[in-house]
Amino acid sequence: MAETLITKPSPLPATTPPHVARRRRRKGGLVNLLYMPALLLFAVFTVYPLINGVGLSFTNWDGYSPEKAMVGLANYTRLFSDDTFRMVLTNTVVYGLGSTLFQQVFGLGLAMALDRPLRGRNAARAVIYLPVLVSPVIMGTMYYLLFGYNNGAFNDVVTALGMDRVAWLSNSTAAIAIIVAVNTLQFVGISMIIYLAGLQSIPSEYYEASMLDGARGWKQFTNITLPLLQPAFATSIVLNLIGGLKLFDVIKVMTGGGPGYSTNSVSTLIGVVYFDNQSAGYASAMGVVLFLMIVLFTLVLNSLLNRHRLEA
Amino acid sequence: MHLSTNRLFNAMVGVVLLLAALIQLVPFYVAVTTAFKPIDDRSSQLVPPSALFFGNFLTALNQGNILRAVGNSVLITVISTVLVCLLGAMAAYPLARRLTSLNKTVSLVIVGLIMVPPLSILVPLYTMMNQLHAINSYWGEIAVMVTGHLPLAIFLYTAFMRSLPLSIEEAATVDGANTLQILFRIIFPVLKPVTATVIILSGVSIWNEFSLSGYLLAKPSVQTIAPAIGSFFSQQSSNLGAAAAASLIAVVPVLVAYLFLQKYFIKGMVAGAEK
Amino acid sequence: MKSGFTLLAAGVVISLSLAGCGASGDAAGSSGDGSIEVQTGLAVDSKLLSTLKEVTNSFQQANPTVKINLVPNSTTYEKDMKVRLASGNVPDIWWTHGWSRDRYSKFLLPLQNEAWATNFNPALSDAMKDSTGAFYAMPIDTDIAGIIYNKDVLDKAGVSVGTIKTWGDFETAAAAVKAHGVTPITVSGKANGPAGNLTDWISPGAYTKDELAQLKNGTFVGDKYKTVLDLVAKWRDQGYFNPDYASAATTDMDQALAQGQAAFIFSQNNRINNALQYNPKANLGFMPIPSLTSGPSYLVGGEMNAYGISKTSAHTEDAKKYLAYLAEPANESKLAQSAGSAPGLTNATANMGAVQASYDQWMTQAKTTLVPYFDRVYLPNGMWNTMVTTTDSIITKQSSVDAALGQVESDFKSLYGQGK
Question: Which residues form the ABC transmembrane type-1 domain (chain B) (predicted)?
Fold first, then answer.
């Protein structure tokens, strides 16, 4: 019974009808106790350390010595004139939006291809999803080897074609593009599965009906597929955006943030400033600003998702 | 004519898919060739090993403590994932069904928590864990892993529960069932597909977790798999072959688990995709 | 459907009880089980670690009440240590990798009164002893480093190491190598360090004795540092560095050197042993570093593998006993030999393998001057990272020599102010 509920589109509206919500609200907040264990964990293991981290951002701590001094807002004012931070902020947005865009395009494309009755499609699904199962450190390392200058497979191909070796990751624009590509390849499987699920939940009657109206191909895609996939877009975009904005391991293994600081994301720069530059206070300020920006971002995203929910 | 263009189109789609699958296999192919070649082999990564060399696997198993690490990872991943599912489903219920402004705020905060950069909390968290004597203990690692993966689980469970029709719960309420009975008898049983999704997303992520686990479980006897692989790369020397071999060993358990859960997984994603 | 839930519930119960077991077994944290925790800083499969294990086993047979727990480490070692020091969960013994005095001395026990201290290698004094003569780690080896070269590459380019006395000679050699289609110098820009080595190696030869004393007293002698950076910029413009500088890892340095894709690297000698793993037939050696002034060529010497004891350890006596055991001539010799470098104590001997010939040539016979790591002795604590990032910014053309020099100067001044 459970499965029929899920695989067929439900005949009922998703959002709680107003009268029900009202009645439940009156019925008491005891049910809220159910999220207390989770909130308790968040309070102890995320919020409390986070607040401590905020405290560090007002100091000049080097990250390991017993002594530190209060420096007020100096770390924050320094941020505003820090060109590196600004550049890295842009990179972070590029990583976030770039990966998200490509993962949607390729994820949807692959899902539509795999939705067709083809032989071997189960194997293809599993193989395309495979990289999701591997740690980004390992995936990044493998691609790092492939892009290697002296011994990389890509340069083996290039030299076999009679051309000069290419220092793939030594140009910051190319390196950023490669990092986005690697992240896309690794996690395109998640988008693919989400869209595949979305496509399978669209009743075939819709397509049949539109066929009678003479619509097919691109028209069917824009009139039926895209609108009905909207909730899938929401889930997939949220997941990919989080992944892209938090990107860390792939950058670390592929370029280490170089040349210079030019391929760092905010997360990797925080690590560099905290541990290598021994400016833990300044790194904490970066973390706070990043977090505030992400909260703002989440608010905007949430209101967008809510609006869509109302429309739907 | 219609049929033949259709067949041609299918063939083209097939070729594209084959290409996509091949691209995805390239890094794995390189991992395999690296793992089966000795360190002084100079042949291209694309060339298969001339003879299978097992030295890297022996190094991984004997010196890298990989089996012990796999055991630790299995324990931590299983327990953490079970707790993530249980606590996540529980927390999602009021957030999906009781849309007060308080609960809307709580939902928002939880989505915000997904994005906390791990490095911003590393040192304060480690200091606290040390005071709690939780360093090198399984429970400390599990608590941190569960906390880190709960927000996404709650997000997915909430979306799924909102897609469930209210009628059965309504009926049960009329029959006099209380909230807990509704939750355990009616809601939990239908969560199977989304649970499969949460298990795969959280499980894979906990299994591969590197940045915090390396600190929380530093002793070789309690170390998990990702830091264990990392210990083939030190400041002074690196052993790529052994690391590749260890990585291949590490991916087997997740792959098996994935293939096992795959059929539920797509259904679970339908949930998020449905209105 | 019900069975699914029962399964879940059973899973939780089993899990929680398992977690409980795990917790009780290890509840006391890292040092609570009475063992001495040694952060070795070494890769899990490294030669030095396996020798250390061997020596430790024999120590434990002799001292069954003391439990030593050797922990291998990864590339995140320095971060791990900083986190541990910051949180107060300090290991009993740890690897000091060149920083026993400048970074770690406030956390470490002074060891100059130990019995083995009389054999402390004087070559390490500048790098490890503070102004009172105290030092904070037991040196396994003495790192003696110059410019590492691949003789096969140089032979093919018609260059003889013996003829390289000045940077001019070096550049002639580099040009000849480049003309043969090989990258003259390979540096890893991805790792946080090798770029700094480059300037750290060149700098001592840019200053006179008086100027070095000025640096020590807090006066930044900028025009001399500029000559160092100019040299790096010149090499960059000549195309002497590897094209993949920015993304190259240290393993790429090892491989390029081993496989004849590079003629020179500026690094500690342990890279030679790493490189030989990739190509055991490679003909590698090291040579002294030319001076930028008219002074003699020199080699850089300092602390590499050394272990210090935490001030706050609950087992300081046992830890001292353990280090004393490592310091016994037979053990110290064995350890230094597997590190592939000269021992850190004068009563030990080591066969340095591939490095031995160069060592004999330059140290034993030519008695080349040994200078300490420039940044550790003449620059305020914290400058190492500045050296790395400014050199990196010149090689990658992210900033001009003048801008980089300005950065070095301002960091020098602020860090000197903080340190005093």
Answer: 70-261
